[in-house]
TrEMBL record, chain A:
Entry membrane topology: Multi-pass membrane protein
Identification of the protein by name: Simple sugar transport system permease protein
Alphabetic keyword roster: Cell membrane, Membrane, Sugar transport, Transmembrane, Transmembrane helix, Transport
The keyword Mitochondrion appears for this protein: no
Spans through the membrane: 6-25, 37-58, 64-90, 97-119, 139-161, 192-211, 217-236, 243-261, 267-287
PANTHER family documented for this protein: ABC TRANSPORTER PERMEASE PROTEIN, SUGAR ABC TRANSPORTER INTEGRAL MEMBRANE PROTEIN-RELATED
Pfam families in the cross-refs: BPD_transp_2
Subcellular location: Cell membrane
UniProtKB/TrEMBL annotation, chain B:
Location of the protein in the cell: Cell membrane
Alphabetically ordered keywords of this record: Cell membrane, Membrane, Sugar transport, Transmembrane, Transmembrane helix, Transport
Extent of the signal sequence: none
Transmembrane segments: 15-38, 64-82, 94-110, 116-139, 148-166, 199-217, 246-264, 325-345
Membrane topology: Multi-pass membrane protein
Protein name, UniProt field: Simple sugar transport system permease protein
InterPro entries tied to this protein: ABC_transp_permease
Length: 310, 366
């Protein structure tokens, strides 16, 4: 086998892992936005999930417990956002920003005792015969359970939104909350549940970074991935399948940035580190320029405050 | 039926506009008390070390002004944008670019300076910040791309750019590979305003920005257009106000002010360029803008309060070994409480179920 071909397997595997946190966070936010709520606090919820998951795994030795707590912690921080924006009618943009600033501080506070502490590896799938397949074996059959869960969430979210009655109601709430309210649907309760789901997904996304991808705890470990996930939702024009595409794209950019350095191409590492952020801007521009398409796909009530008596 | 519900006020409560920031501060202090207690510190001592001890000396009060300067400069610009629903989250990056461009001028003319150097650096810093903010403005107007996401992404790009410069072109040639620039010469440093403190010329610019921001919003037609566009974009459209012009104006203005803040840091208290020129001033400025009710005078007061959270964090770290991260937690909590209590401006709390007219079943459940 040539050296180039031998590289494809690890690169593909690394791309899938790099895409996983984005996939979770973006799918969660997609459901939130479909219900008509814009939660800009993804980065904060990811950080809280990352640190709580890490702390629990470091204490118990169980990464499963870590992921479970991370999901709960993410949902908990999201509940704060829900109370403020849905019950107290606060501005969603401002509250989302507050959630991120709060998450950055809180995670640093919780995590101060966990910097540099080792944790057990997350077990990876190993199917004799398949995992050993050349090139694609490791990428397709040698990942840990969370990667597969992330992939499974794509059809699951799609099925929920477009194949179930509850999904239809959630979308109706996101398109026109006044009409949905008039039909007797509990707008605030539905949105709150969506926000909690988004928080849990962000929490898992963060924990994937601290438990699996890195794996360690460091302040600001998410490095803007929460914001990239928000951009991915727009890029995907609020469609779950396209979120997967976008996550892979960004996973690819992240990995490419590492491998360019490995190939000995002489670009300073600091400039290469800009790539994912620049790519986000470019992708956002390409998709947003088609205003008609954004209008057609964006939930019509996105970011608007709802008060039943108003 | 719910015990507690929100009833719309006939008109927004003026009193609550001024009261809710105070309520939010009080709630933050109470939460801080509980937080310190839960962490095993003596809460009274911790709060004293955090909020009172640092400002018990002339030097301490001076430091307060030093830290408030970049916060106020950034927040004035951001607030004008927020008024027009232009969400510039990129003050941190614009501040960084101001430092890179303005500080770069200081390094470029190293050893050849004169009285003209500092003014040139100030202009350079403002232009650098404004150009960085021009990117999200252009992308929003030309391509409809959300300025929230683009301006935020550019923060990360700016930090990496600074890092690259500090490890490459900007590094002190005699500096043993440390990622720091040369120390600026006397011609390239902001003059001090108060003896015995580090209060520098930048603080005067911050006060000018407060006055200018107030004049722009309260006394000019552009300020009026900004407010109308923010409150009712449709009405602004009927009135023929040019929304694109306002997006350009607010982003360029806030970028220039953030750039000035960044230049003020490197030519002021820091005195050189290094990779950590800002402990997150650009982000904290968002909180300052909201806490100050998007009003220049309010921002001045809020700037001092948030400056105290930075100094207090450092002081408490030294005095009691409190983790520095607590600053961020305080800042986040304060903004949360403010946003939560702001509901009282337009709604009043009512206890018990609605009496008349009888609500349709389920309507008051929210």
């Amino acid at each position: 086998m040539s050296a180039d071909l031998a590289l494809i397997g690890p690169v593909l595997a690394a791309m899938l892992t790099a895409a996983t946190p984005l996939l979770f966070a973006a799918l969660g936010e997609l459901v939130v936005e479909k219900s008509g709520v814009l939660n800009l606090g993804v980065e904060g919820m990811m950080l809280v999930g990352a640190v709580c998951g890490f702390a629990v795994t470091a204490q118990t030795g169980s990464s499963t417990a870590g992921f479970a707590i991370a999901a709960l912690a993410g949902a908990g921080t999201a509940a704060l956002f829900g109370v403020l924006t849905l019950l107290l009618l606060a501005n969603q943009v401002a509250t989302g920003l507050a959630l991120t600033l709060f998450g950055v501080g809180l995670s640093a506070l919780i995590g101060q005792g966990f910097v540099g502490i080792p944790i057990p590896d997350v077990p990876e799938l190993n199917i004799p015969g398949l995992t050993d397949l050349p090139v694609i074996g490791k990428a397709l059959f040698g990942q840990d359970a969370v990667v597969y869960l992330g992939l499974a969430m794509v059809p699951a979210v799609h099925w929920f939104l477009y194949g179930t009655r509850r999904g239809l109601i959630l979308r109706a709430v996101g398109e026109n909350h006044a009409a949905a309210h008039a039909l007797g649907y509990k707008v605030i309760r539905i949105r709150f549940l969506a926000v909690l789901f988004g928080g849990a997904m962000s929490g898992i996304a963060g924990a994937y970074l601290s438990l699996d991808y890195t794996p360690m705890w460091a302040e600001g470990i998410t490095a803007g991935r929460g914001w990239i996930a928000l951009a991915l939702v727009v890029f995907a024009t609020w469609k779950p399948g396209r979120v997967l595409l976008g996550a892979w794209l960004f996973g690819g950019v992240t990995i490419a940035q590492l491998h360019v350095q490995g190939l000995g191409i002489d670009i300073p590492s600091q400039l290469l580190s800009m790539l994912p952020y620049l790519a986000t801007v470019v992708v956002l521009v390409l998709i947003s320029r088609d205003i008609a398409r954004i209008r057609l796909n964006a939930p019509a009530s996105l970011g608007k405050v709802f008060h039943p008596d108003a | 039926m719910t015990l507690l519900r929100l009833e719309p006020r006939g008109e927004a409560s003026r009193a609550m506009v001024y009261l809710t920031p105070l309520i939010a501060v009080a709630l933050t202090l109470v939460s801080g008390f509980l937080l310190f207690w839960a962490m095993g510190f003596d809460p009274v001592k911790a709060l004293h070390a955090f909020f009172i001890a640092p400002v018990s000396s002339v030097r301490g009060v001076g430091e307060l002004a030093v830290k408030a300067t970049p916060l106020v400069l950034c927040a004035i610009g951001l607030a004008i944008g927020f008024r027009a629903n232009v969400w510039n989250i990129g003050a941190e990056g614009q501040l960084t670019l101001g430092a890179i461009v303005g500080g770069g001028i200081a390094l470029a003319f190293y050893g050849e300076g004169g009285w003209w150097l500092l003014p040139l650096m100030i202009v350079g810093g403002m232009v650098g910040g404004a150009l960085w903010a021009a990117i999200p403005a252009f992308l929003r107007i030309r391509f409809n791309a959300s300025e929230i996401l683009t301006s935020l992404m550019l923060n990360y790009v700016a930090v990496h750019l600074l890092n690259y410069l500090m490890h490459g072109p900007y590094r002190d040639p005699e500096g043993f590979a440390f990622p720091e620039s040369r120390l600026f010469e006397a011609d390239a440093v902001m003059p001090l305003l108060v003896a015995g403190t580090r209060v520098h010329l930048g603080s005067l610019f911050a006060l000018l920005a407060v006055a200018g921001g107030w004049f722009l919003m309260a006394r000019t037609f552009i300020g009026f257009q900004i407010k109308v566009i923010g409150l009712t974009p449709t009405a602004a459209g009927y009135a023929g106000f040019n929304q694109k012009k306002i997006i350009w104006l607010t982003l360029l203005l806030s970028g220039a002010l953030a750039g000035l803040a960044g230049l003020g840091e490197v030519a002021g208290p820091i005195g050189q360029l290094n990779p950590t020129i800002s402990p997150g001033y650009g982000y904290t400025a968002i909180i300052v803008a909201f806490l100050g009710r998007l009003h220049p005078v309010g921002i001045l007061l809020a700037g001092f309060l948030m400056a105290l959270s930075f100094i207090g964090g450092e002081a408490a770290q030294i005095a009691l070994g409190l983790p520095k991260a607590i600053t961020g937690v305080f800042q986040g909590m304060l903004l949360f409480f403010l946003l939560a209590t702001d509901v009282l401006i337009r709604y009043r709390l009512r206890f018990g179920a609605k009496t008349a007219p009888k609500p349709i079943a389920g309507r008051a459940a929210a």
